[in-house]
Specification:
By secondary structure, the protein is mainly alpha-helical. It is built from 10 helices and 6 strands. Strand 2 and strand 3 form a beta hairpin.
């Protein structure tokens, strides 16, 4: 395969000030600080601001449509339109660019536009509090949506045999494999160590470490579920209750 110099670029991740003069057959290759890859933007500083801006740009036409459509469509139909036109953009690679921290500054523009969409669906004033609206519509916030999609992906990785999958970077260390004696955490075989210490038997990349943290913070009743569809349903119920400020007893999660 011969690269096309007009379509080829390069990015320097470290040191960022280094800009070498690269050429292909005497054609100069341009330096890019970010590039699009599989629907997301890979930035030179490994942040996600460009991806968030790209998602918002794709949402803008639908937001304008929602502004006028809610005058003619009821709430149930508007919710269906949300899952048809908005939801796919929000869940696309969210386990890569998302976060469960609502105070992260880079995610705030997307959080604001998501709240605006919720207000349009419910025909609420521009400054209406969106948390009760989301709970009424059974719609998760951006941060809870990240937890849901990450946990489901973690569940799929955990339940799939390694020999049936291609090479990957998700290598998880069970707590039970770190001790020769029983401990509180080692008895939970679904509990992983989100650490990259030198004493660890196998290293974990940042994504695997983050996925482990999200998985470990779930209630044990959810982590023990074998069915992916059942996990989705019960985890969404748990996150909606948490979003509302309520706590669900463990016995309800098992039922």
């Amino acid at each position: 395969m011969i690269p096309n110099p007009k379509k080829t670029g390069y990015t320097v991740f470290y040191p960022t000030k280094l800009t070498p003069n690269l050429q292909i057959n005497s054609h100069h290759i341009e330096h890019h600080t970010s590039t699009k890859l599989l629907g997301i933007y890979v930035q030179q500083d490994l942040k996600h601001h460009d991806t968030i801006r790209h998602i918002i740009k794709k949402l803008q036409p639908n937001v304008r449509s929602f502004r006028y459509a809610n005058k003619y469509l009821n709430e149930n139909t508007m919710t269906e339109q949300y899952y048809t036109h908005i939801y796919p953009h929000l869940i696309g690679s969210i386990s890569i660019w998302g976060t469960d921290d609502p105070h992260k500054s880079y995610i705030q523009p997307l959080v604001r536009i998501h709240k605006r969409i919720i207000r349009y669906i419910c025909r609420s004033p521009p400054r209406a509090h969106t948390q009760p609206l989301m709970n009424r519509l059974h719609i998760l916030s951006i941060t809870n949506l990240y937890i849901l999609r990450t946990a489901v992906e973690m569940h799929h990785i955990r339940s799939t045999a390694n020999e049936n999958r291609p090479d990957h970077i998700h290598h998880y260390v069970q707590t039970s494999s770190q001790h020769r004696y029983q401990t509180r955490f080692s008895q939970r075989k679904t509990n992983y160590i989100p650490s990259n210490s030198k004493n660890q038997r196998s290293k974990m990349n940042p994504f695997a470490r983050e996925y482990s943290r999200i998985w470990n913070e779930l209630p044990s009743d959810l982590r023990e579920i074998d069915s992916t569809s059942e996990l989705k349903d019960k985890l969404k119920t748990f996150l909606l209750a948490k979003q509302s400020g309520f706590n669900i007893p463990g016995n309800l999660l098992r039922n």
